[in-house]
Design brief:
The chain folds into 3 domains: 94 residues, no CATH class; 176 residues, no CATH class; 133 residues, L,D-transpeptidase catalytic domain-like (Beta Barrel), CATH 2.40.440.10. It has 10 helices and 20 strands. The strands form 5 sheets. It has a 9-stranded mixed beta sheet, with helices on both faces. The protein has a 4-stranded antiparallel beta sheet with strand order 2-5-4-3. A 3-stranded antiparallel beta sheet has the order 7-8-9. The longest helix has 17 residues. The chain is globular, with a radius of gyration of 25 Å. 39% of the residues are buried. This is Lipoprotein-anchoring transpeptidase ErfK/SrfK.
């Protein structure tokens, strides 16, 4: 970062500390004036003290004020840009040159999580959110050539698209937390990116394509300002804090999940193996990423405060038809008018045990299902040659939801490995994350058609 940039922000802090800690209520702002903005988009009048923050520049050239915990406490921007980006919250009584007659509207208040979000709204602290990066920007995302099999999410304008052509998008270089913001936005709007992990890849590309189908809008991942503004105006920004409860810490949990089906059948329940696994699923996150952003957290201790992504409320509505797209590895749900309601990355069949073709129907919905292993009907694992009853649980072979199809032994179901969805093969069924399977199950009923497309 240039010395001029450091000097400008340092001067801003010095001036604030020497003159006053609170700015006047009705200042006359001039073109080029600079303000500090809090991570939740509010004008900062109580300036950070010198020595309590350091200044870094992000990849867009903006000055960020970082505390000792590597959290962004303020973003420096021009007063004009702040008015344009955030509606001038806190500048309602300020004026810009000859624009004194312009009023700056208050943006919509963020919606609070409902009781059906899968977490306790009272436990979420939105006061320490970071709308730009969550923390200091970290490693950059892989180039397009490093993402095998990713589909083209941003076709050239005017060029016809061939269905299921596996092309590689040119991904922008944005930080992991900025990718998380995009993933959370897509998740909240029913276009599931699978696990929230801060990585641009095939599942994000599929979600972006679904967003375009549903809205007609091409959402550019590089346009992080638009993503942040929409998050802030909706259910709130992407990151929040969660306090681990006594119930979270207590479980019950199992030490490990065996791979052998005969050993699985001996368990009382196919439960989570740890608090971190349970919380990762609750917040739709990749387990490794949850650990990564909370490197010093004791997930087993009640009262521990952790940083989490805040996913959306479960989608509601009535799904009239489903498309299980084998080539795209995606399930798409439509209403009676043919409008896309939701889309989910999926693992659909394999070369050895292919999924059905053509049209089938939903027969029944079974939450928290057990699993019957029958080597004569399904597949054979090792030396297991007997029918085995595997108990229910999130780590069961079909996860926490089973949507039975009219083709015997086939269904749409959850999974014990959400991070593998869309990247591996199944034993012929359609596998979604547990939360996506649960969301879809609440919108379907027996008789809904499921079309398997190649």
């Amino acid at each position: 970062m240039s010395g001029l940039r450091i000097a400008r922000t340092t001067a801003l802090l010095l001036a604030a500390s020497m003159l006053a800690t609170t700015l006047p209520a009705a200042a006359q702002w001039r073109e080029g004036d600079t303000v500090l903005v809090s991570p939740d988009g509010r004008l900062i009048r109580d300036m950070p003290e010198l020595g309590t923050v350091r200044i870094v520049a992000d990849e867009f050239g903006r000055n960020l004020l970082i505390n000792d915990w590597n959290e962004v406490v303020a973003i420096e921007m021009s007063a004009r840009d702040y008015q344009r980006s955030y509606g001038g919250v806190g500048l309602e009584n300020e004026t810009f040159g000859n624009d004194s007659a312009d009023a700056f509207p208050e943006p919509p208040a963020p919606m609070q999580p409902g009781s059906d979000d899968g977490y306790d709204a009272a436990s979420i602290d939105r006061g320490n959110l970071d709308p730009i990066t969550g923390t200091v920007p970290d490693e950059q995302q892989p180039a397009a050539q490093d993402i095998p099999g990713a589909i083209q999410a941003y076709p050239d304008q005017g060029q016809p698209q061939q269905k299921n052509v596996q092309q590689q998008p040119v991904w922008p270089k944005i930080s992991k937390p900025q990718v998380v913001a995009l993933q959370v936005f897509l998740d909240r709007n029913g276009m599931s990116p699978g696990v929230i992990d801060g990585r641009l890849g095939g599942n994000v590309a599929k979600a972006l394509s679904a967003w375009k189908e549903a809205t007609g809008e091409t959402l550019d991942p590089a346009d992080t300002d638009t993503v942040m503004q929409r998050l802030a105006a909706g259910e709130g920004l992407a990151f929040g804090s969660y306090t681990i409860t006594a119930e979270d810490a207590a479980g019950p949990y199992v030490a490990s999940i065996p791979t052998d089906y005969a050993e699985k059948a001996k368990l009382e329940r196919m439960a989570f193996t740890s608090t971190v696994e349970m919380l990762a699923e609750r917040f739709h996150m990749d387990e490794a990423y949850l650990k990564e952003i909370n490197p010093d957290a004791d997930f087993t201790r009640q009262g521990t405060i952790i940083k989490v992504a805040i996913p959306g409320k479960a989608r509601t509505g009535v799904v009239a038809s489903i498309v299980a797209d084998k080539g795209r590895k995606q399930v798409r749900a439509y209403d009676e008018a043919g409008k896309l309601v939701a889309a989910y990355p999926a693992t659909i069949g394999s070369s050895d045990t292919p999924s059905p073709s053509g049209m089938v129907e939903v027969k029944r919905i079974a939450p928290d299902p057990g699993y019957t292993y029958n080597p004569k009907v399904n597949f054979k694992q090792g030396e297991n040659d007997k029918v085995l009853e595997v108990p229910p649980g999130p780590n069961g072979p079909v996860g926490t939801m089973w949507i039975a199809l009219s083709r015997p032994t086939y269904g749409i179901h959850g999974t014990p490995e959400p991070s593998a969805i869309g990247k591996t093969e199944s034993h012929g069924c359609v596998r979604l994350t547990n939360w996506d399977a649960g969301e879809l199950a609440k919108m379907v009923k027996p008789g809904v058609t499921v079309a398997f497309e190649e």
